[in-house]
Amino acid sequence: MSLLIRQGWCSAVAIAAIIMLLLCNMQEINASESVRIFDGIVGAGNYSYYTIAKRGTYILILDSISGDADIYVGEAIEKPDFENYSYSSCTCGRDSITIPSEAERPVGVGIFGHVAHERSTYRLTVIGASTSDAAAAAAKNIHTPKKGSSAMDTFHRVLLTLLKILFELLQ
């Protein structure tokens, strides 16, 4: 009986984690928003650069397909790097940054290839959010300051903790 209850609880935790992940991903892309996708490869210790000149709120999502790519963004900085930037996201998974419409233009976007990997393959998704008050409020909640961690990082830590608990219970 105890084993059945334990398995049922573990299943409930797994289902809750999957639902949280799906809800989080569904909130990232809205059909009414403009989406551009850039695939690239960056060598260890090198940068690939992009520029955003047009005003508006932008959400940048960087997925490292192989290796580990990090993102640095600079207001009025053409080629931001790990020492000279306005916003950054440096995780081992999905990185995301919101650039507010008030950010000084042009905005430079630097994708850095971590030195631990010979090369990093990435996908940069750029979402031009609508200018409604709701989108602006959402953008402020996602906004990643220079030295802070993003809401997505917190979500990943919580999910990882839940999965660790799940694996411990299954052993």
Structure in words:
33% of the residues lie in helices and 35% in strands. By secondary structure, the protein is of the alpha+beta class. Helix 1 (2-28) packs antiparallel against helix 3. The two termini are 17 Å apart. 23% of the residues are buried. Mean pLDDT is 75; it is low at 1-6, 17-32 and 132-149.
Biggest beta-sheet profile: 4 strands, antiparallel
- Look at the helices and sheets and give the structural class: alpha+beta
Overall, the morphology is: globular
Number of helices: 3
Query: What fraction of residues sit in β-strands?
Result: 25-35%
Rounded to the nearest angstrom, the radius of gyration is 18 Å
SSE blueprint:
Elements: H1 2-28, E1 34-43, E2 47-52, E3 57-66, E4 69-75, E5 87-89, E6 95-99, E7 107-113, E8 119-129, H2 133-142, H3 151-170
Antiparallel strand pairs: 1-8, 2-7, 3-6, 3-8, 4-5, 4-7
